[in-house]
Amino acid sequence: MKQKLEFSSEVFQQVMKHFSVVDSFKGKWELEALKHSKHLKELRKIATIESIGSSTRIEGATLTDGEVEKLLKSVKISKLDTREQQEVVGHYNTLQIILDNYNDIVYQNDMFINFTESY
């Protein structure tokens, strides 16, 4: 059995006032999310570069984070000159796959090794 709520005009106005506050908050929230999105993208970029630099240095590479960033900006190169450059691009491609598909990935022990070996 459905019942219809009936309000006096004063109560109706108060309810609408509260709805407008909620609605304006939603708009501000979306604006804040958009502003923070730019910061999150920049943080992701920095974290990616530092992670790749650290990971490849553990394996013996000597590229600095600045050199890693420069290399990744020119990743369209068809032939990479050194093993270090190949490892950096391999790590970058692996991180991109993970970041783009993290919700769908079924994690297994050796999958990350297989990712980097395929590049």
Q: Count up the domains.
A: 1
Report the structural category.
Answer: mainly alpha
Q: H/E order of the elements?
A: HHHH
Number of helices: 4
Indicate the proportion of strand residues. under 5%
Helix % is: over 70%
Distance between the termini: 64 Å
Number of strands: 0
C-alpha geometry: elongated
Largest sheet: none
**Rg result:** 25 Å
Uncertain regions: pLDDT < 50 for 5+ in a row?
none
Key phrases:
119 residues; single chain; mainly alpha; elongated
Question: How would you portray this structure in words?
Answer:
The chain is an all-alpha fold. It has one domain (14-117). The chain has four helices and no strands. The protein has helices at residues 9-58, 65-73, 83-101, 111-117. Helix 1 (9-58) packs across helix 2 (65-73) and helix 1 packs antiparallel against helix 3 (83-101).
What is the topology?
Elements: H1 9-58, H2 65-73, H3 83-101, H4 111-117
Helix pairs in contact: 1-2, 1-3, 3-4
What is this structure, in a nutshell?
With 119 residues, the protein is mainly α. Helix content is 71%, strand content 0%.
